Description:
The complex is a heterodimer of chains A (about 425) and B (about 70).
Chain A: H1 6-11, H2 20-26, E1 31-33, E2 39-41, H3 44-51, E3 56-57, H4 72-88, H5 99-110, H6 113-117, H7 120-132, E4 139-141, H8 142-147, H9 149-159, H10 166-178, H11 182-186, H12 188-214, H13 220-225, H14 237-253, H15 255-268, H16 270-278, H17 283-293, E5 300-304, E6 308-310, E7 313-315, E8 320-323, H18 325-328, H19 363-380, E9 385-386, E10 406-408
Parallel strand pairs in A: 2-8
Antiparallel strand pairs in A: 1-2, 3-5, 4-10, 5-8, 6-7, 9-10
Helix pairs in contact in A: 7-9, 7-19, 9-14, 10-12, 10-14, 12-14, 15-19, 16-19
Chain B: E1 2-5, H1 15-19, E2 24-27, E3 31-34, H2 43-52, E4 58-61, H3 64-70
Antiparallel strand pairs in B: 1-4, 2-3
Amino acid sequence: MSEDALFAEVLDPANRADPYPIYARLRRTPVSRQRDGAYVVSTHAAIRSLLFDPRLSSEDLPPSRRPRTGNPLTDWVLNPIKNRVANAHRPLIFRDPPAHDTLRGFVMNEFTIARVNGLHGRVGALVDTLIEQCRGRDTVCLVDDLSYPLPVAVICELLGVPEADEPQFHAWATQLATALEPDARRDDEARRVTVTTFDAIAAYMRRLIREKRRHPGDDMLSGLARPGRAGAPAMGDVDLIATAVLLLVAGHETTVNLITNGMLTLLRHPHELDRLKADPERAPRLIEELLRYEPPVHFRTRKALGAIEIAGTTIPKGAPVILLFASGNRDPERFADPDRFDPDRADNQHFGFGGGLHYCVGAPLARIEAEIALVTLCRRLVRPTLLDDPPPYRAGASLRGPSNLGIRIAGIA
Amino acid sequence: MRVVVDLNRCQGYAQCCYAAPDSFELRGHEILFYDPAPPDEARPRIERAQQACPVRAISIEPASLDREDAL
């Protein structure tokens, strides 16, 4: 396999269960040009340096294009306007400073410490209820039984999305998450479905935001929709919708992987499972090691705003750049014995939540959910063992995790 | 217990403020205030803050060092 086809191997679903040997080959060239002109960055040092490089832009999405409908008013007037609005109001993960910082500021003002930490009890209650529902069975299907419903319920509650409306988000969120995968961007049909999905979810959000303005609750969406106080600017409606959709999708499609990868890793390292069960205070370091060893998001893409010389390669202006976080996390130059799962590892500076100004907003919430879920699972599942190893995986190479994790149990404690 | 934050490393990710809000506070966007001698019962939260720090800027040292410093 030639080096410029290695990233295509990463995207190949056949390699989803274990992409790490391909990452090791990619790291031989820290910044490696692929056949399609994209540059894959795979070492810890190069990723770290580029995360803080202002010449790397997050505004790398191709322009929004709605499909022809045959109706001239729609095709020549309405849709071009919608496309321009969508291109100008992308959510903050696809924005650079200063717009990014302004949008993130609005979100951080509502993602308060009190609001996030206030979810502790609720997360615990949800985890217990979900596990209780498995009583009487000899198998747990972790994704359907817990890893997916838990973060979904939490993000809906945090944002203030009525739980009854949740089922329709499932399909929407999955579709929008696939739009983050490199394959989907090149495929016209996939882009068409993404635009249609975004329109549907945006229409829902517009109604919900109107509702929140009429009857504000103490949820995040009510807070974001509140008009600015004392002349302070508020987020515009289009940005507000894009932000709400982003938070909802992020809540649906990432923490699920952290919890499932976590349980998979613990079941592959039963000694660590027993230690966590005996001492739940090991959870924080164990979760950081999970974020290094099996991160929920394997890579993000950027675009070079100018030529960038790095690690013996020159990335030309305009080239797509793939920051392969999960490979940096396994870089032997940075981590001793990187392929070993070792929660007692010191100096664990991983890219599990990315880094730099786009560092995951939801990180504190993800840590709370993962800690409570994993500790409770270890405590309550009696003699858990893996049914299939490796398990089946979801389609995504970036948002990577099992689609199902069958666990045989001898009961619920 | 004595807490030391290497403020040259700190980049204001604020993860410690979520993990141990009684002991860490970010004012503005990047000025970190923290309690260098938190009570013992705060230890689990301080350890969470230490683990969650993306740049590993937080260290926890035995309180006995306080006395050595005072000398």
